[in-house]
What does this fold into?
Amino acid sequence: MSVCSGVLRALLCLLFAAGLLTGCAGKSAPTRFYLLSADDVLPAAVPQEARAVLWLEKVEIPPYLDRPNIVVRGDAGRIYLAEFDYWAEPLRDSISRMLARKLAGDTNRAVVTESYAAGEDRVKIVILRLDASTDGDVTMEAMWRLDSGGADTGEWHYFVNRLSAQQNNYSGYVQAHSRLLALLAEDIARNVPAI
It folds into this structure.
């Protein structure tokens, strides 16, 4: 009788533990993926035949942004990584593609990111900061340099701007990122020589 009650007690404990584990393993929040793009800030694609070329060097971003998670800056230098909100592709690639498209529309040039020929105008961009804060502001700090005719003679320009996200959530942050990148492209385009 005592052996049966011991086995029964062990079996009940196992069933109870299994029930707890099943309850703890409930559904997690869905993962969401984002791309930089905002049709309201980007011009339509411009045909590229017979236009001067502007070469966009690979955009540099700080290591804290070089990750799949969307980054939010907190108080006292804290950085928070979104648990369920990710970039759909490497952020550096998304930034380069968006800037190339915006610069093409703003300068009426063919903007290339893959190859460079001697004598082409080129732009180098270093992103120093591009993140949202917990209060809903998105800040961008960047440096850029335009080298005309391929010579490394351009001066570095400093760009800083802050926008409030229209919504204090990740979708709003991503839209503000896109608007800030469009403003950076406009700043660069104003300095590109006319063709």
